[in-house]
Amino acid sequence: MTVTAYTLALLLDLFCVFLGYRFWFRPAPAAAGYGVPADPRGDARAYLSVKGLRDGTFGLLGLALLAFAGARAEAWFMVCVALVPLVDTLIVLRNGGTKAVAFGIHFATAVVVLISAGLLFAV
Length: 123
Prior knowledge:
- The protein is an all-alpha fold.
- It has six helices and no strands.
- The protein has helices at about 1-25, 25-35, 45-70, 70-80, 85-95, 100-120.
- The mean pLDDT is about 95.
- Keywords: Membrane, Transmembrane, Transmembrane helix.
- InterPro entries: DUF4267 (IPR025363).
- Pfam families: DUF4267.
């Protein structure tokens, strides 16, 4: 179970780093994938940059906690971070995104993050 817990946490952290990179360097497709399309040449430029910074920072912080503080610290981090995709679910729904994206991507991500936290607490 330890390998599974660490592997899932590592993958989730790396995925956040990837999302941050994508919002910085491929913002239009990243926003479309998020569920609320935005034009990076217009007013949404700041939103896309902040989103990239947020996601990338969460990934790097998760990696640092996993490497230097251990499973319990990473588990608490995951519990706190699960709030982000839960709220992202509401953001997508309130801004014209589809229920499929809101629940199939964001809500499902929150569930996986909480499962990861549970596995890390069990280590």
